[in-house]
Specification:
By secondary structure, this protein is mainly alpha-helical. 80% of the residues lie in helices and 0% in strands.
Length: 278
């Protein structure tokens, strides 16, 4: 009987030990519980800071005040309208950047002439702050939707293309050599070996760059927009409506978290073969 109990407790003890090893595993339920606990602690610290008046309630509203403002903005449709507009802008702008950055990054990472022709200028432009282009984009394309897409493109494309380049460069050369040994053409090796082998890393790159796109969208909406979450934050700042500012910030955070976790979920389903056993 004692031996049976010892056998049953060994897997649990082993799981506890491996959870704190470098690159160790963690079951889904404890993972979710830890994530929820951290959010609870964050909001608890916020509530406590507001409760003890760490700052004036005028500048640091309580979670309850912010929640009441969320309900108010949701009821009159303002929150849903701003969220819809910002989500549409981020989706279109990021898709434009991806449609250009993905093929260029793949070509730079696999063909030396493309690397020589594109990497130096991309390196040059990526160090220029995208926010400095805001007044220029207004002059070039006006203050319409095209300006928002252009800012997202400038802020996302250059980093995205270089990350894609690194993704395809990390494909083991042995895979390419095997394709050549089998008599495959270079284009076939690219499409049937290099891209599938780098697909999980490419997906992670796209997931990460969505976060950058959100940053640049808010920058564009803060300066030249009459709608969207960024515009709502800017308007609230002018009238010292800090609870509305918190609503805008938290809404962007929730949208970003949902998009990120959705991408991670889809990545695990699409590229399950690349997942290591947990």
């Amino acid at each position: 009987m004692a031996a049976d109990r010892a056998i049953r407790t060994r897997p649990a003890a082993r799981r506890r030990r491996t959870s704190f090893r470098l690159y160790g595993s963690l079951p889904a339920l404890p993972y979710f519980a830890i994530a929820v606990a951290v959010f609870v602690l964050m909001f608890g610290a916020w509530w406590l800071a507001a409760r003890v008046h760490l700052a004036s309630s005028f500048f640091l509203p309580s979670p309850l005040q912010v929640w009441h403002r969320v309900v108010q903005l949701a009821r009159d449709g303002t929150l849903w309208q701003d969220t819809k507009i910002s989500f549409t802008r981020i989706s279109i702008g990021w898709l434009i950047s991806t449609a250009v950055g993905l093929p260029i990054g793949i070509l730079i990472g696999t063909l030396r002439p493309f690397e020589a022709g594109f990497e130096p200028p991309i390196d040059f432009f990526r160090y220029m702050p995208a926010v400095a282009f805001v007044p220029l984009t207004i002059v070039w394309v006006g203050v319409g939707e095209s300006q928002k897409y252009l800012i997202i493109f400038i802020g996302t494309f250059f980093q995205q293309a270089l990350m894609v380049m690194d993704n395809v460069k990390r494909v083991p050369r042995e895979y390419v050599d095997i394709g050549r040994t089998l008599g495959m053409r270079e284009s076939s090796i690219l499409l049937r070996i290099v891209i599938p082998a780098s697909a999980p890393a490419l997906w992670d790159t796209l997931r990460i760059t969505i976060g950058w796109a959100w940053t640049w969208l808010v920058v564009a909406e803060l300066v030249a927009a009459n709608s969207g979450l960024g515009h709502r934050i800017m308007t609230a700042e002018r009238f010292f409506e800090t609870d509305t500012i918190f609503v805008g910030i938290l809404t962007i955070g929730v949208l970003g978290l949902v998009m990120d976790q959705t991408m991670k979920f889809l990545g695990r389903r699409l590229f399950h073969w690349s997942e290591k056993p947990r």
